[in-house]
Design a protein that fits this description.
disordered C terminus, 137 residues, mainly alpha
Length: 137
Amino acid sequence: MIPIEKLKQQHHHICQLAEVLMVLMEDEAGRQTDVTRELFERLAGMTKEHFELEERTLYAELMNQSDKEIKNTTWRFLGGAPYLKKYFSDYVRDCCLWQEGEKDCDAFVQETREVFALLKERVEVLRDHIDPDCGVI
C-alpha cells in the first residue's frame, strides 16, 4: 500500500524547508546560525527518508501497474533517483555550513539554489506526471 498522504506531507515539508532555508542562505549572517544548520540537517534527513519511502512503496507499486505510460514514467524517475540522491548527499557533505571560521560561500549559495530547484522540480513532476487516477500523488 502506498502511503499517499505521508508522501504528500513530506513533499510539502521539504518544499517549505527549502524555501525558508533559501532565504536564510542568501545572507551570510543567516547562513552561520545554529538555526539554519538545524533546519538544513532536518531537510537532509527528511529528503533521505522521503527518497527511501518512495523507493520502498511508490515505485514498487507503480511498476506493478498495467498502464505502460505509468511504467515508463516510473522508470524515468527510478533512473534519475540515484543521481539526485548522490548529488544531494554530496551537496550536504560539502556544505560550507559545516566549515569552521569565515569562508566565502557564494558558490555554495548558487549550488543551494540549484539543488533546491531540483528538489522542487522533482516534487512537481511527480505530482503532475503520475496518474492521479492511481491514487498515487
